[in-house]
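Sequence in, structure out.
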Amino acid sequence: MKTLLAAVLLASPAFASVGTTLSDAALEQTTHRVVYDPAYVRLAYPGGDVAPDKGACTDVVIRAFRKAGVDLQVAVHEDVLARPRRYTRVEKPDTNIDHRRVPNLMTYFAKHSTMEPITDKPSDYAPGDVVAWDLGGGLNHIGLVVDRAAGGRPMIVHNIGAGPQLEDALFSWRIIGHYRYDR
């Protein structure tokens, strides 16, 4: 009986790794219709989110972290207040948008997660890892590693214009950030 109880407890979400929780939460988002919309929106604070049928790449990450018990709206805002010089693109703290910008998430994750090496080896990327890319022309993008496809390539959930998608996109653009949140 104790073995069965231990197996049930270990399989429960409370005992899941942060990476697994983030991965599962990102995958779940691919089942919803979401229109790409990076527009500035007034949000409740704390716990604010854009409408469930709207969002950008950052909202995929924000929603996954929220399911893992981390409110990036609050976390980024508090970090902006505590370390304003690190957030070079924030002129005045704004709880409505600061956490919805890729450079700000990169700054936050650089301080509050493990910075993993940026490599071209698929085995270096694990479910739950946050990856940021340079799309060129001053545009950045962000998504989550969720699983491995046949052949071992990591799959990504991201929103680059068609809503949350599961794609083999890890090496589609130049990677500029690789973070593992393990708290």
